[in-house]
Amino acid sequence: YLFCSSYTVGMSVGDGYTGNGGTSAVPPALYRMNRDGTGREKVAELSSGQVFGSAVLLAKGPYRYAAVETLVSKSSDDGGFVTTEATDSTLMEFDSRSGASRQVCSLKEQRVIGAYDDRLVLLRTLYPVDPDTLQDDDGAYMENLRSSTQLILLADPRTGEEKEVLRAGYDEIGNLCLWENRAYYGAMKKGVIRWADLDTGEQGVLTDQLPTGNLTYSVAQGGKIRVEYWEDKYLNAAQTGCRYVDVKTGAVTELSLTTIKPREWVNVLADAGEDFLIVSDYLAEEEYVAWAGVTQTNITGRRYALIRKEDFWSSKAQYREIQPAERAGS
């Protein structure tokens, strides 16, 4: 699947479906095509004011599942600018044979983490009180949130059948990612990663050796979890560190490879046999202060490179730069 929207351009595993979204007059749609891009055929089209909020999350027989968001535009009080926000997110099913679609469920109080064994993995929040009734009371709203329960579920979107994998307090699942048959999770600022088996519900600790701080998880190449540290996840997006945790052994490896400007920890784009494909640096203009007072940098290009896997894991910057076609032929 190749999926494109007004927010993302990404790849997901599949056999030739593409979606597109945006705010132009062309309605977002799901397409079928061959792997080489030929034979493009529209499968389904969204309604006005809707965009795809995700790539195709699951392919189950002839059915394709994706998150769809409803957008509403709002003008500022002085009419100076217009903002667009999502007011509703829904899991939709698309029939690749007929183009028919149906709403599976609301994603208002749950989100899709990924797919496993022809089912979706959901993280659902159960509130003591309906949060919509507490919008005018910030203190009560936050207390209701802190008192909520988090569920990790396996859900069959065709039948509606669900299986509970894990139930935990709100602050126990601040980060969550999947690898094979396990969900890896942990509190937002604690240096412990736990796991839950999606088949059996068995639980355990992968590692308790991570430094504490503002951290986020993501699945990386080679059966590892990438843990990124931030100065302040919400107010300052500057990264302060990066580590990898082996999902088999729990061993923690610190990464010191960074780009120069802006300074970010090098991330793996793809596995290339004995090498990793990475962005080794950016082509960037001078920093400037945006209207909100945040320092930003305009990215005008990226430098792509290959690096031997053993050099990457040992933080040796032995890059083999990939020349763009116009530079390679000059």
Summarize the structure in short:
With 330 residues, the protein is mainly beta.
What does this structure look like?
The protein starts with a strand and ends with a helix. It has helices at residues 138-146, 309-313, 325-328; strands spanning 2-4, 9-11, 17-20, 29-32, 41-45, 50-52, 58-60, 63-75, 82-95, 101-106, 110-116, 119-126, 149-155, 162-169, 175-179, 182-186, 193-197, 203-207, 214-220, 224-232, 236-246, 252-254, 268-272, 275-284, 288-289, 295-296, 299-308, 320-321. With 330 residues, the protein is mainly beta. The protein contains three helices and 28 strands. The strands form seven sheets. A five-stranded mixed beta sheet has the order 2-1-3-4-5, with no helix packed on it.
Task: List the keywords.
globular; disordered N terminus; 5-stranded antiparallel beta sheet; 5% helix; 5-stranded mixed beta sheet; 51% strand; 330 residues
